[in-house]
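Suppose you are handed only these lines of text.
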Amino acid sequence: MKGMVIMALMTGEEYVESLRKLKLNIYMLGEKIDNPVDNPILRPSLNSVKMTYDLAQMPEYEYLMTATSKITGNKINRFLNLHQSTEDLVKKVKMQRLLGQKTAACFQRCVGMDAFNATYSTTYEIDKYYNTKYHENFKNFVKYAEENDLTVDGAMTDPKGDRGLSPSKQADPDLYLRIVERRPDGIVVRGAKAHQTGICNSHEVLVLPTIAMRPQDRDYAVAFSVPTDTEGITMIIGRQSCDTRKLEKDADLDVGNKEFGGVEALVVFDDVFVPNDRIFLNGETEFAGMIVERFAGYHRQSYGGCKVGVGDVLIGAAALAADYNGAAKASHVKDKLIEMTHLNETLYACGIACSAEGYKTESGNYQIDLLLANVCKQNVTRFPYEITRLAEDIAGGLMVTMPSEKDFKNPETGSLLEKYLKGVSDVSTMDRMKVLRLIENLCLGTAAVGYRTESMHGAGSPQAQRIMIARQGNLAQKKELAKAIARIE
Ligand code: SF4
Ligand code: FE
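From them, the structure of the protein bound to iron/sulfur cluster can be written out as follows.
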């Protein structure tokens, strides 16, 4: 029965097994990684993506985690959904908050979802203008991804070289991904995409341009998808602060969040062949900006969900630390927890608002309100820093000076640590240490990649949002409002 209803959905275990079948070309810490699935540094990031499959199987989360396919009418994972209403957009944000709460990490599957929706609506408009076949190509790809419940990495950010020069003016022409050969059966691409969240846990990669293009950048205006184990693709995993704690024995405590994490990589496309039916943009430079702007809008909305869920965990950890320190009743501690909550819910409010104010595109899927999504992300570049500052304030200095798990296990020092690092008498020293390590993980350990710096630069650095806010803010209309009230003719 169950199998019939959710035919297209993979279980978490099936997802893990499906990744084992990929022949990915991955390097990390100077070595080729032949078994990424069981690698202790990478496994927590896979577990976070697995959670997007696990929750979709649970009846209590079905309404958030699944959706109805726009293409086939089948039940699909919401991470593959083409949003069909503002309600869908709101559910997306709620789903992301839920996953942030369950993983306290980046669960990686959102970039593909956001790239899906941007590519769907843009290809429709390109086809209308040029009579091309990109939308049909893309719909077939979506259908394939839905039917196999795939994780798709959305690849946007090129290395960009000299930021003052356009793609075709770079000293090295490969600093933006480009078409190096056009063949009757497809194209050959070369270049790289940086900061690729979750690429090593993905079945497919959907590549989009990263900036608006001019006519001379024709070879750089390219969008396509290929399986992640396509010949010519190399992934070089990024380091995270404290990553090698995961390799140590007897260091589970020190890791802070043993089960979950995020992952990023530099992905190189060294003359990768893309067949015609997987091409979604091929030289139509004037549409590069549209696809970028729409993707960025969706991804700025996303942060109003995922960062809020992680923030929920951090606020909870800070409150626990206060309890365990015996400081929970202090009025300034209570006030700091209120401030953290206020900031976190403000992020959420913008995520919900830009969704509720969404609109239907020509292709029929829904786009968020651009101004509110950019306000959302601009807040995200700030508030998690303030929330972590307050968490560190409440936690106290021990979160960065406490000894290792091995010292707790050493008979010479263990009892000393038990005795002298005790907080309130009815909470074990070990529980107090666990919550401090979780705070450390989020504020300056492996998860800080996602919760802090990614909040700054992910989905576009702060200035990118300010440009959009300036464009969308409609100052002219506001001047008219003021003139009318002031009776200026
Ligand atoms: Fe999803 Fe957030 Fe990770 Fe981006 S940072 S992939 S929105 S969890
Ligand atoms: Fe991101």
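What can we learn from it? Residues 197, 454, 458-459 surround fe (iii) ion (ligand 2) (CB under 6 Å). Residues 291-486 form a domain with the Butyryl-CoA Dehydrogenase, subunit A; domain 3 fold (CATH 1.20.140.10).
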